[in-house]
Amino acid sequence: MNSQLIKMEAVNNGYAEGIALDATGYVSEGSGANLFLVRDGIVHTPALAHSVLSGLTRDSVMQISKNMGLEVREETIPREWLYIADELFFAGTAAEITPIRSVDRIEVGSGSRGPITERIQSEFFGIIRGDKKDPENWLYPVG
User: Fold this and answer.
1) Which of 12, 23, 17, 72 is nearest to 52 (CA)?
2) Which residue has the higher pLDDT, 70 or 18?
3) CA distance 29 to 22
């Protein structure tokens, strides 16, 4: 299913964004962003084999998480995990780091940005704004 159809189906059903499943029914990604799930302090994201677009923001989130001492697992994520996640967020060029409050009108965690998402988001924005050390040398001054 292409990203425009995912977004259109989500909006038609009253949602802000859609989450795609791969051909076997496992979680893939959003219409224009990768999906991350936090459960019991572990950061999970679908493996590339699940029709996931590899990208710089995805890789950056995984590296930031590892640098913070968090365990990151690229794996098969059943749809049911979306309902029992402590935290969910999208990551992508346009989405940057965007917390997900609910899935199918079921509240995720406390229904607001979780503490791990907040830490990752803060670190990500701090690095790209130049407010925090860039441990991976991602930034290159221009001009």
Assistant:
1) 23
2) 70
3) 9
The structure tokens listed for 126 are 């701090």
Which pair of structure tokens corresponds to residue 36? 């991350």
Would strands 42-46 and 72-75 be described as parallel, antiparallel, or unpaired? Answer: parallel
- 128: which 2 tokens? 């790209």
Neighbours of 143 (CB within 10 A): 2
Q: Which tokens in the block code for residue 136?
A: 């991976």
Whether residue 127 is predicted with pLDDT greater than 90 in this model: the reply is: yes
Q: Give this prediction's pTM.
A: 0.88
Question: What structural domains and CATH numbers belong to the chain?
Answer: 3-129 (3.20.10.10)
78, pLDDT greater than 90: yes
Q: Which amino acid is at 63?
A: Q
Please report the DSSP string for 115-139 in residue order.
HHHHHHHHHHHHHHHTSS--TT---
